[in-house]
């Protein structure tokens, strides 16, 4: 583009690498790649469940997957118990944390220490904001946020409000996410 040409194969290689990095897999396929402090995303169909990898096959888990619950207990659990046969992937949000909150991951020691300090506590839980992803990012970055809420729920609401043919409210995922994060920063 703009006077620079790239071999077509390069785009295929990039697409293959992105697919490799983003696809869900069986738990056994990613165990070797998991590091303490990693966010682990469990695919549950319409939504994802998140936990923080503690190492040695354990995760810190927010135990409330019912959207009507208003509190959740934080537990250290075996990753297989949380997985329940669902597909998983390592899903650190380092780019989002840096871009929108200007924070980096804490040291592994701090991440694990902070996550374990929440163990057995019952904390406020909201399926659409202060959820498992929120607490997992809180432990990793010191700032809690939920990317799936921004990219799915906000998009659905805007799509319903916009209606067919109305382009006024139709926004990109990045614009929706920016709006969501502006609210999250408060």
From TrEMBL:
Pfam families: LRAT. InterPro entries: H-rev107_PLA/AT (IPR051496), LRAT_dom (IPR007053). Residues 39-148 form the LRAT domain. It comes from the Eukaryota. Keywords: Hydrolase, Lipid metabolism, Transferase. The keyword Hydrolase applies. The keyword Hydrolase applies. Gene3D superfamilies: endopeptidase domain like (from Nostoc punctiforme). Belongs to the H-rev107 family. This is LRAT domain-containing protein.
């Amino acid at each position: 583009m703009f006077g620079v040409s790239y071999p077509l194969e390069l785009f295929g290689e990039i697409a293959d690498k992105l697919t490799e990095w983003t696809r869900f897999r069986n738990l056994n396929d990613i165990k070797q790649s998991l590091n303490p402090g990693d966010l682990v995303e469990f695919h549950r169909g319409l939504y994802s469940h998140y936990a923080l990898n503690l190492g040695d096959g354990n995760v810190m888990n927010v135990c409330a997957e019912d959207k009507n619950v208003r509190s959740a207990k934080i537990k250290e659990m075996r990753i297989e118990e949380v997985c329940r046969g669902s597909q998983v992937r390592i899903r650190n949000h380092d780019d989002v944390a840096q871009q929108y909150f200007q924070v980096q991951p804490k040291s592994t020691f701090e991440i694990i220490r902070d996550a374990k300090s929440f163990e057995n506590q019952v904390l406020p839980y909201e399926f659409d904001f202060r959820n498992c992803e929120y607490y997992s990012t809180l432990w990793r970055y010191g700032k809690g946020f939920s990317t799936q809420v921004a990219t799915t729920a906000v998009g659905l609401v805007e799509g319903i409000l916009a209606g067919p043919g109305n382009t006024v409210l139709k926004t990109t995922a990045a614009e929706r996410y920016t709006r969501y994060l502006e609210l999250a920063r408060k």
